[in-house]
Amino acid sequence: MKDAATRSADGGAHGRGRDRGWFTPTQPPDGAGAPAPDGHSRPQEGSPPPGQGAAEAARPAARPGKWVAVRSVKPPAPAGPSPAPAPPPAAPPSPPPEQQRPPGHQWPPEQQPLAEHQPLAEHQRPAEHQRPAEHQRPAEPPPDQRFRPAPAPAPAAGAAESPDTHAVRSTLAELEPVADKATSYFYALLFIRNPDLRALFPVAMDTQRDRLFKALLTAARHADDAATLTAYLSRLGRGHRKYGTRPEHYPAVGECLLAALARYAPATWNEATEAAWVRTYTAISQIMIDAAAEDEEQSPAWWQAEIVRHELRTPDIAVVTVRPDQPYPFLAGQYTTLETPWWPRVWRHYSFSAAPRPDGLLSFHVKAVPAGWVSGALVHRARPGDVLRLGPPAGSMIVDHSTDNGLLCLGGGTGIAPIKALVEDVAEHGRCRPVEVFYGARHTGDLYDIDTMLQLQRAHNWLSVRPVVSDGPTRGLSGELPAIVRQYGPWPAYDAYLSGPPGMIRSGVDALVGIGIPSHRIRHDEIGGLMAASPG
Ligand SMILES: NC(=O)C1=CN([C@@H]2O[C@H](COP(=O)(O)OP(=O)(O)OC[C@H]3O[C@@H](n4cnc5c(N)ncnc54)[C@H](O)[C@@H]3O)[C@@H](O)[C@H]2O)C=CC1
């Protein structure tokens, strides 16, 4: 890695002067440029001499003991932007998209920031087939639906948008029509300038290849919402430990981010905008670095876990039980990320399907989805003795034990997994709070965990379990979960928990709010969501 970050406290851990502590130059002192996108070394386009960049002029004071980020990037000269970087080496076909958990309802799918960065991808055919000036046509229709920055949130009543946030959002608005090209350019540049970073990412990249870039942009967009942003970025920073992300990687990422913005948002890019982005990115990366450093003192970056039981419940659904190599603390209702030996560095999210157990075993419900290589491997290939890797636990869909409120639970498909864990958690706490579970499936045969749930119902008189079938014949309740729940109630003293497909979460939340449950008492999976329902 060329662009090691510095520790401002010691005047630069890598020999750079104290005055450059926050701002990491990429140019070697002799003035030779960083490798150009074509692989040759040449002077960095438009980068200001040390001490003259707008961003540098605007930089905040160095924070003692903190790792620091990025250098200044100027937009390419309008007359002749540099050729786009060549694509990195070809990689095997990408694993198709796969989702085992839904996003928070506040974020439509195309707006979700990354929950955990799935390191970038392969591909990056940045500007392949792209004429040099193409990126300067903001009027072009969006080339791809995969990347669409979320609309800027309206500032809270009475809260003015800060100048930095205004500048950042202006860039993002200009970037939107060419966001996919900017994403490609960003990753290509990142890997070409920093080949060693490529090893942190999966060999094959799927459609989530833009996750890191998108997360950075999303975080920047929400820079005014300090509390939400800090929670989100801290989790992101902790989650990045398992990829081998180190503080010195952040400046490299920041440089490429700024280069992509400068290139693909030329109309709004100027010194003031650049300075705003430098400050914003520095704040973002600092939160992530700090969270990772703090986490490092308490927790491993990942756990090894041996499969000890593998039960095929339907042709497509398995319950996989693992034994972690060291204690794995978590709360019922949380989820983790999981990597299989067959798809290195490809991590997928799964909820714990049981509350913490004295024997330390962890269970997951996995459904093999048509294009899901990880879930397919877990269902059809994994066997006892195979070793997986687990990331840290995350998620706030947990039971509030400070109240006697009842729990109204909607579990759709394999979304029943964390609901079962919540029920066990209530049972273990010994308080007889009413718990009403609506367990939805498309067909009766898809209710793969109904026996367990009915067994729990028999054991606990405060628990009621109602299977609901939406698409096939049934002797029980028929219809979609939200519509069915609306027929019951009222639920004046209940907290609601929803887990299942994104569409079910969205319509479920709408239905519950519609029947009078205040949104602060509604919890649901928060994967991908900055603004997931906050704990009641
Ligand atoms: N495996 C795990 O640990 C967890 C998985 N999940 C998520 O749960 C989902 C489970 O998928 P499947 O089992 O295939 O479920 P599915 O697609 O078969 O649907 C399950 C239930 O949700 C209802 N539903 C689906 N879309 C709906 C919509 N738009 N509006 C209202 N109701 C809707 C269906 O009618 C059915 O009752 C996946 O999206 C997965 O990511 C969520 C939490 C944990």
TrEMBL record:
CDD domains: Mb-like_oxidoreductase, O2ase_reductase_like
Family: In the C-terminal section; belongs to the flavoprotein pyridine nucleotide cytochrome reductase family.
InterPro entries reported in the protein's UniProt record: Cbr1-like_FAD-bd_dom (IPR008333), FAD-bd_FR_type (IPR017927), FNR_nucleotide-bd (IPR039261), Globin (IPR000971), Globin-like_sf (IPR009050), Globin/Proto (IPR012292), MRET (IPR050415), OxRdtase_FAD/NAD-bd (IPR001433)
Keywords per UniProt: 2Fe-2S, Iron, Iron-sulfur, Metal-binding, NAD, NADP
Organism field: Streptomyces nondiastaticus
Domain Globin: 156-293
Ranges of biased composition (kind: Pro residues): 75-100
Entry keyword Iron: yes
Domain FAD-binding FR-type: 300-400
Endpoints of the signal sequence: none
Highest taxon of source: Bacteria
Record-given protein name: nitric oxide dioxygenase
Region of interest: Disordered: 1-168
Catalytic activity: 2 nitric oxide + NADPH + 2 O2 = 2 nitrate + NADP(+) + H(+); 2 nitric oxide + NADH + 2 O2 = 2 nitrate + NAD(+) + H(+)
Transmembrane parts of this sequence: none
Biased composition (Basic and acidic residues): 119-147
Catalytic class of the enzyme: oxidoreductase
Keyword Iron recorded: yes
Cofactor (UniProt): FAD; heme b
Pfam (any one): Globin
Biased composition (Low complexity): 29-38, 52-65
E.C. code: 1.14.12.17
